[in-house]
Design goal:
Blueprint (H helix, E strand, L loop, with lengths): L9 E6 L10 H13 L5 E7 L3 H10 L5 H4 L2 E4 L2 H7 L7 H4 L23 H27 L7 H21 L4 H5 L2 E2 L2 E2 L8
Parallel strand pairs: 1-2, 2-3
Antiparallel strand pairs: 4-5
Helix pairs in contact: 6-7
């Protein structure tokens, strides 16, 4: 939802400032790993573990064997902001807390009553779900055929259906997913992603 078209990988930051054993959420870590390994195997570009305290290293010894070696190799550890700036450009980090150049401040925008009322329209949701299933079946069939006859080139038909799937999910999203903070901020709307940075010189 927050990947702009054309972008294929993300950087995730786990900021472990003031981390203690009480903060360790094994369920979340397991879900995070499973999601990237099973559903988004090539989406994770880098996972930055920032300011990990000494107590974390014992936990890392337990977590690392759970990870696919390819996924484990994507973890980068930074001890301070100077090291973080070597991984992520300062222009993309907020001034506050990370000594970046982006003048961004977190603001929670609460939900508006009725913003998800469209989900009550089950007939429209069912029609969109059926349309989606048809597209997925076409994509699966074309992909299987492409794999059997692969010649080092992309399949134009497969790429077209992939675009149709993306567009169709944009129409289906309001019926199956509640609005989130990124949508209320205006970052992710109608299938478009609009990241803005207010860079200070």
């Amino acid at each position: 939802m927050v990947l702009p078209e054309g972008a294929e990988t993300v950087i995730v930051i786990f900021d472990l400032s003031n981390f203690g054993l009480d903060n360790m959420d094994w369920g979340f870590v397991r879900l995070f790993v499973q999601c990237f390994e099973s559903y988004y195997p090539e989406t994770l570009g880098v996972c930055v573990v920032h300011r990990a305290p000494f107590v974390f290293w014992g936990l890392w010894k337990l977590i690392q064997p759970l990870l696919d070696p390819v996924v484990a190799s994507k973890f980068v550890f930074t001890r301070n902001n100077a090291e973080l700036h070597k991984v992520i450009p300062r222009e993309r980090l907020p001034i506050n807390h990370y000594e970046g150049l982006d003048d961004w401040t977190y603001e929670y925008v609460p939900a508006v009553p009725g913003e998800n009322d469209v989900q009550k329209d089950t007939a429209a949701k069912d029609a969109l779900s059926a349309e989606r299933k048809g597209l997925e079946e076409r994509f699966d069939a074309v992909t299987r055929n492409w794999i059997k006859n692969i010649n080092g080139q992309n399949s134009a038909e497969r790429d077209t259906i992939a675009s149709e799937l993306r567009e169709q999910y944009t129409r289906m999203t309001p019926y199956v997913r509640a609005k989130n903070l990124y949508q209320r901020w205006g970052v992710a709307n109608q299938g478009k992603v609009n990241w803005t940075y207010n860079v200070k010189a």
